[in-house]
Specification:
Chains A, B: InterPro entries: BlaI_family, Cu_transp_CopY/TcrY, WH-like_DNA-bd_sf, WH_DNA-bd_sf. Chains A, B: Belongs to the BlaI transcriptional regulatory family. Chains A, B: This is Transcriptional regulator. The structure is a homodimer. Chain A is mainly α. Chain A has 2 domains: 1-91, Orthogonal Bundle (Arc Repressor Mutant, subunit A); 92-135, no CATH class. Chain A has 6 helices and 3 strands, in the order αβααββααα. Chain A has helices at 12-24, 29-39, 44-57, 77-90, 97-107, 112-126; strands at 27-28, 60-65, 68-73. Chain A has a 3-stranded antiparallel sheet. In chain A, helix 2 packs across helix 3. The termini of chain A are far apart. Chains A and B meet through helix 1, helix 2, helix 4, helix 5 and helix 6 of A and helix 1, helix 2, helix 4, helix 5 and helix 6 of B. The structure holds a DNA duplex.
Chain lengths: 146, 146
DNA sequence: AGTTTGAGTTTACAGATGTAAACTTTAGTC
DNA sequence: GACTAAAGTTTACATCTGTAAACTCAAACT
């Protein structure tokens, strides 16, 4: 299971490549190019560039196999998702995050199990939750609320 | 209440400026520069650039007031947050989004009211939720799962 | 009225990102 | 062993971002 930390961020275009490799577990470039180009109108050269950047960033490992490489993920998909989501949330007013979750969840298809797990976690979280969260958009010492 | 749609995205640095204006409701550049530079080690010139870009993008409106402008948001904060979050989620495997929510919620401070509203929504959502969500990382016709 | 000063505008520039062609190398093929 | 074709590498280039200096212009002060 990949657990390596990565400092550099994975860009939107790179995510598309990573998702293929994450899903397949491993893949050669031919497979990646084949699958990605069915989802996006990108030339093979473009996808090669993305693969190259992901290797350089330490997101994909290579294993030589004859004349080509097998690529495998060096970072875990869930960890990458969590980091990306957390980064997005950090950007936003702490006070408004709850509503953002409500709206995001409303717009997202979730399985029964996912929903039950979420309810579970929320019920636990409720026992220690503060009554209110303050807006943190202004510098220390200023009071504000969105 | 600002409701304008915006096509261009607001960048990370621009978010910092928007949050000030959203929170204050309106502000002149002096105030924005003052507050933002208490949060980030940016020169006034940098913040001016960000303000200018936000005006050009249609995220901030200007009202002349003597020798300066009053800036007001043209887009709603919650809408911007929802769009940003949705964009991030769209990038991620549909099958894994539930777990991403679980982890994000675990890491986020939420108020009792927020949590209760989330539970409420989730309980409603549960009544129509599918048993499972499929991985959508591969092109049509391929089956995969992360 | 002339000068100062601060608000806003223009220009700058490096690095990241999306997009891709051109080139090099080498494993297979004949 | 020479050739070919595909894999990977280099180079390219426009746009976006982060970061900021320089410049312009008019409001406010003297």
């Amino acid at each position: 299971m990949p657990t390596t930390e990565i400092t550099e961020t994975i860009t939107n275009a790179e995510w598309c490549v990573m998702r293929i490799v994450w899903t397949l577990g491993q893949a050669d470039s031919h497979t990646i190019i084949d699958l990605v180009s069915q989802q996006h109108d990108w030339k093979a050269a473009t996808i090669k560039t993305l693969i190259g950047r992901l290797v350089k960033k330490g997101a994909l490992a290579t294993t030589k196999n004859g004349r080509q490489f097998i690529y495998t993920p060096l970072i875990a998909e869930q960890a990458a998702m969590d980091t990306a989501l957390a980064g997005q949330l950090d950007q936003m007013c702490a006070m408004c995050r709850g509503q953002a979750f409500v709206n995001a969840i409303d717009q997202t298809e979730l399985s029964q199990d996912d929903i039950q797990e979420l309810i579970q976690h929320l019920q636990t979280k409720l026992t220690t939750a503060p009554a209110t969260i303050s807006c943190d958009c202004l510098p220390e010492g200023y009071e504000g609320s969105c």
